[in-house]
Recover the amino acids of this structure.
């Protein structure tokens, strides 16, 4: 019927019809050109050798492209088929494996881990599987004296983790813990009888057609594998070597292409991997013992921009960084993989998303409380100088922020130079707190800053993230 109507139209009408049909293609090309310009510019600024990027809409790839070099020594270009390391982006797969075992009745999220791991130290007695998944167990990260060049058995890794005194009681706080996810991998092995990487291959990668997704191996011959790099005194160097064991742990030791991850993204809209109820649990903010929530689920970070939900996670490991941002309500996903330690994939992903939907960009909103912005400006200046008044923080925030995090924040802000502009871009209420989001413009860059204030205007939470 459409063809009949089309053939009866005049030449002018045909031209109009052609424009109607081709218009979306031209628009898509225009967006792609903007993406190219931005990505290439950002790679130059950050000194990133290579980037692979995919934009997925409604589970279908609308853009998949490589930029720069996968291997500098051999001058091999990046393409969508180039394989990068996942870093902590791999945690969502560990969490999914756990939830598969939950659905089968083999794991209970609120069961103490001692049921699955056997004898544990006294300090671990109250830790549950849920605590490990949500980074609320109190477990810390790899200690400073950890030997990344030693091959450990799983039992040795578990003993090493158990020898470290937890930083707080389970459920009391949120603190990112790679060792918590290393422990989950060991737990999966004990419960299922299978190495967690084999379980992923059997239950996720093969069924979804993720043909190049796998555990890292530097010994195997792997076509299209990128080399990882880091900057040393402003000069690119090859990635540092780690032991084979530490490239197989469940805190994020996987290989992916953006094409693999596009298939993964598409599967998350249905029930190919998990039931919707299970996915819902994974994407729900964790509730702490004090009934306040933190924007992290099971292997996924949770946020929003202008009312649009974001389910996201980044990764960094051995000369690579990664980022996946799923704008769930918009059914838009941006995946970025690069081969530079310290590369800012998150910034690239968020900017690219805003090209496809301008509502996904931070914009200034009317500032109805200039006195709050003025106090935030003052706080930022003092944070940079290392002179922030601890009495302006709540008791919990003071204990969490000072002195270590305050010192790191001071170093970060000093590195950015003079603070030039503070713009309000978000304001909401959460858990009885007033939450303000600001776009900060510094002499040498910009950051997004979020601060949560009590009724007494005390700082309950604060965070910096890469600029949008």
């Amino acid at each position: 019927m459409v063809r009949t109507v089309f053939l009866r139209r005049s030449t002018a009408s045909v031209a109009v019809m052609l424009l109607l049909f081709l218009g979306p293609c031209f628009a898509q090309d225009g967006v792609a050109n903007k993406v190219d310009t931005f990505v290439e510019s950002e790679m130059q600024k950050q000194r990133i050798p290579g980037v692979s990027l995919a934009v997925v809409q409604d589970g279908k790839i609308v853009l998949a492209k490589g930029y720069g070099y996968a291997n500098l020594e051999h001058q091999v270009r990046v393409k969508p088929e180039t394989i990068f390391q996942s870093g902590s982006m791999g945690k969502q797969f560990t969490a999914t494996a756990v939830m598969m075992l939950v659905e089968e009745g083999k794991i209970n999220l609120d069961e103490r881990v001692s049921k699955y791991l056997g004898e544990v130290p006294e300090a671990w007695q109250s830790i549950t599987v849920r605590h490990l998944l949500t980074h609320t167990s109190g477990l810390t990260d790899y200690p400073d004296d950890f030997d990344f060049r030693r091959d450990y058995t799983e039992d040795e890794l578990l003993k090493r983790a158990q020898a470290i005194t937890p930083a707080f009681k389970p459920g009391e706080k949120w603190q990112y813990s790679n060792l918590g996810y290393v422990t989950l991998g060991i737990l999966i092995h004990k419960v299922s009888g299978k190495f967690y990487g084999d379980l992923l291959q059997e239950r996720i990668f093969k069924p979804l057609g993720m043909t190049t997704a796998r555990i890292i191996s530097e010994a195997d011959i792997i076509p299209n594998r990128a080399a990882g790099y880091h900057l040393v005194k402003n000069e690119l160097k090859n990635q540092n070597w780690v032991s084979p064991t530490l490239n197989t742990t469940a805190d994020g030791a996987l290989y992916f292409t953006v094409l693999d991850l596009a298939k993964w993204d598409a599967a998350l809209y249905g029930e190919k991997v998990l039931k919707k109820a299970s996915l819902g649990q994974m994407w729900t903010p964790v509730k702490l013992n004090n009934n306040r929530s933190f924007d992290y689920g099971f292997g996924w970070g949770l946020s929003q921009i202008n009312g649009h939900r974001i389910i996201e996670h980044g990764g960094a490991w051995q000369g690579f960084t990664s980022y996946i941002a799923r704008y769930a309500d918009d059914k838009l996903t941006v995946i970025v993989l690069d081969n530079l330690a310290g590369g800012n994939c998150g910034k690239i992903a968020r900017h690219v998303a805003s090209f496809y939907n301008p509502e996904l960009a931070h914009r200034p909103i009317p500032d109805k409380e200039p006195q709050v912005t003025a106090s935030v400006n003052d706080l930022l200046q003092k944070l940079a100088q290392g002179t922030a008044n601890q009495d302006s923080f709540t008791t919990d925030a003071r204990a969490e922020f000072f002195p270590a995090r305050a010192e790191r924040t001071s170093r970060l802000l000093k590195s950015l130079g003079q603070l030039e502009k503070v713009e309000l871009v978000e304001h909401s209420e959460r858990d009885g707190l007033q939450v303000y989001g600001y776009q900060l413009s510094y002499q040498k860059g910009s950051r997004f800053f979020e601060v949560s204030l009590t009724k007494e205007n005390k700082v309950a939470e604060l965070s910096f993230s890469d600029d949008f």
Observations:
- Confidence is low (pLDDT under 50) at residues 1-26.
